[in-house]
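Dear colleagues,

As part of the handover before I leave the project, I'm documenting each prediction I ran so the next person doesn't have to rerun anything. This entry is a single chain, and its sequence is reproduced below.
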Amino acid sequence: MPDPKIAQKSPFVKAMPAGTYWWCACGQSANQPFCDGSHKGTGLTPKKVELAEAQTVAWCGCKHSTNGAYCDGSHKRV
């Protein structure tokens, strides 16, 4: 599996309404932290995230989190 591009070395912290989101896993989207289709041909695919209620989310910006779309502090090591 190819390595993703690091979009930024910190999380994208956003207040999110309930809904379905597609988190960019490749790091190439111009619409970070969400997918815009730029992953085509990279071997990486976006991750579907469903939020049942409104909440503030720390989306992973480095694309190396072991917690999927959510920041786990991995940006401190990359």
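The first strand starts at residue 12 and ends at 16. The two ends are 17 Å apart (CA to CA).

All the best with the project,
I.
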